[in-house]
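Fig. S4 source data, part A: sequence.
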Amino acid sequence: MESRKPRIAIHKFTSCDGCQLAFLHLGEDLLELSEKVDIVHFVEMGPINPLAKVDVAYIEGSISTPDEKERIQHIRANSRYVITIGACATSGGIQALRNFANTKEWMKAIYATPDTIATLETSTAISAHIKVDFEIYGCPVNSQQILASLLSLLHQTTPTASRDKVCLECKRLGYACVMVTKGEPCMGPVTQTGCGALCPSLGRGCYACYGPAENTNTTSFAKWLSSLGLSDEEIARRFLFIQNNAPAFKEEGIKLKGKNKHD
């Protein structure tokens, strides 16, 4: 990057704001970061300049309205690098569950005047609309992952992400496996780490917040969940949850839902 301080922006689309807060949760690291970069757009923190030309644009949220579909194109044109953060931006998020249903019927059931609301039939990942340079999974993302990605770019290196499974994190931290010790379902064997194995640390199964890990054998894992007593529908719901449109999870979830219909 140039000798001037790099300019960054944090943009929000359809989301809960949780991944943007990962920046604020950096605390002192954020103060140190502000000495190395100019944060020119970040509504949560104060600066507002959505049309600014920047070196790095971080995107939270999915594309679910006509306005967002247009706005993301402008951001791509004004940004040297685009990094998506969180489940919504990387795979559509919880709101992408509507992709499996009739959106118009949902609208009628929820809103008194659905015709006044502009929305798309689907909620989709940012990468479905523009070129994305790097993706950070999570719900919400890990603050240190965001910091590491930016520092990598500042040092002119390509950001990297660990795709280790949550199971490996449990081993490293000495947590007992809930599937082995309690016979409880856990998505850890197919989910990438990043949360520090938070749920297993509390004796609960993983919810797959961080999306598919590398080399996920979802079909084999589905059989293991079945051996614990879960029905095909229950297993499908675990795949089609927070990261429901991540390809590996979506494919297995839809297959199980279809199998359930034919039983």
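Fig. S4 source data, part B ends here. The first strand starts at residue 7 and ends at 12.
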